[in-house]
Amino acid sequence: MSLGGADICQDFARQRAETVSAVTIWTELTRLRSCLNWAVKRRVISSAPYVWVPTKPPGRNRVATVEEVRALLDACKMPHIRLFVILAITTGARSSAICELTWAQVDFEAGTIDFRRREAINPLTKRTMKGRAVVLMTDEARAALLEARTGALSDYVIEWNGERVKKIRTAFDNAAKAAGLDGITPHVLRHSVASWLDEDGIPMERISKLLGHRNRHTTEMIYAKPGVEVLRPAADIIDMRLRGQKRAK
To answer: How many domains does the chain have?
Structure first.
């Protein structure tokens, strides 16, 4: 990747674009550049070749409707997939947090679900963990969890044949396809929870706590997508000014 390194990376991007998303291509090339820089810092290689990286694609802002979520639940033929969807849409938790959830973290008496990790981070590394929260159990989640608990064969809430389900994406995509839904992913459910709450006027601080973010600004940047109508008062004031009027105080 010395001379013509950008051309090589762009050729790679064009080929990958036939099978994966723009986000995946950006992630792969960004990680390649990071790995090469890591190798230089540790003197594994003398210098890092140039790695061209495309502009980062815009964030995912797909919001599922209530009807789409209901259709998805109806299409979930396997109980562990349906339970996953219920937990995702009632807690806003990440896919990894739900798949790692154990029954010890579910408190039916207190009515809470504790998604926080149990293992500690090595302080000598720069690895960070995504924030996780303790959330209240909705009635829908409680009913689904109680039903699953009666037949549980392992310590994990999301299980299949007595084994923990580490990744849910393939089964989830199959359910979404069966429901005739396009662009619905586990992350979209998390995004939808935040958007629904924001649209209904829930304070951003509370949404941030539910999602496990360290501060509200992260939540606002990623998830807050106010509808156009929230700007109606501002538009009305501009119209009144242009008509030579002032708003009554």
So the answer is: 2
